[in-house]
Amino acid sequence: MITGSEELELKETSRAEQLEGKLSFQQLEDKFMHSVLENDKQTIDSGKLISDAINYGMSSFTPDMMFEQLVKSYTLAKQIYGESVIRLVSGYEPDYVKKNIGIPEFQRELKERIQQKIQELRDEGFVSKDDSISEKGVELASLVLYFEELDKIVPKGFIGEKQSRKLFVYGDKEDARQYKKGDRYRDIAIRKSVKLAIRRGHNEFATKDLQVYEKQSKGQTYIIYALDASGSMKGKKIEACKKAGIALAYKAINQRDKVGLIVFGSEVKEIVKPTLEFTRLLKEITRIRASKETDIVSTLKKSVELFPSDRITKHLILLTDALPTKGDEPEKSTLEEVSMARSRGITISLIGINLDEKGRKLAEKIAELGEGRLYIVRNLANVDEIVLEDYHSVM
Predict the structure, then answer these.
(1) Domain containing 372: what range?
(2) What are phi and psi of 147, to 5 degrees?
(3) Is residue 3 part of a domain?
(4) Is the model's pLDDT at 10 over the cut of 70?
(5) pTM score, two decimals?
(6) Does residue 115 share a domain with residue 23?
């Protein structure tokens, strides 16, 4: 993981050219793009500051308020802004700020530094006159997130090809296997099932005699990345999940598979229909802010709407850290919507972050009904690897 105090090395990111120009923002000035690519630390730190601020739910910078909060209660300020924002906006390590915040001379210097940093953001156009984060600021944060993630995954080979053959519900008929609950009746291999029943000396079919065709994945895949942006995801959690979404979009779009986005909390906040536009996904992922409770039911309903009705591979990756909390019977409603989505040809995998026992049991039911996979994350650094692994499983 690259912190805001480290320089960003881009030696391994030349593969970005494969996206035929879709990674550059037309609105971005050429000199700014060059400064990022040339490791301009000040520009990179500004992008990191904006990105981290968004991850902690900030939509604007108010230097006086930030300073007053730090002086009033450093502990509360750290919860509101996060250590990275404090470091990048002040130029000091958080522990140093905490240790010296009660000294008047340090307070004066700290206030000047915060005001100076915000003024730099205004001068560069990353923050508007009203101190809200501008579109150019979002673009800067997007680029920094993108380069950070590729700097991690490209050298380690996480975006390489999966060599083993993967089986899925659509495609050419291949080998048969024993029928299991959830298989489609239309996939039953009648001739193979009859032969097996005769060979076993059965006068009538038993469930264990039924054979179904395994089918090899082919054609285009549509993936929807559904990210929980409830309040508990604030900070490092949502940052790791954003980077995982960027890795997924980069890999899938390179494979000419379409990727969509659903951001949900107490309601569905943002949607992007499955697309090949990497730049659009990158910016929408960067904008995500955490707030309030979790409504998985609306997310599942929306995913059904976003997928086309064509007979293609349709897969939903649901990433959350909590049980659904909205509605009278949220768990029951969630499982009903999972069943509805599956009946429309959508498979569902769930990636749970530090789920409790009750949450894990529901997650297991969702993955089982959705005929997808369940992953339990305890190390945020592994989220991108898990998301890519799940994508490879349906390629």
Answers:
(1) 221-394
(2) -70, -35
(3) no
(4) no
(5) 0.75
(6) yes
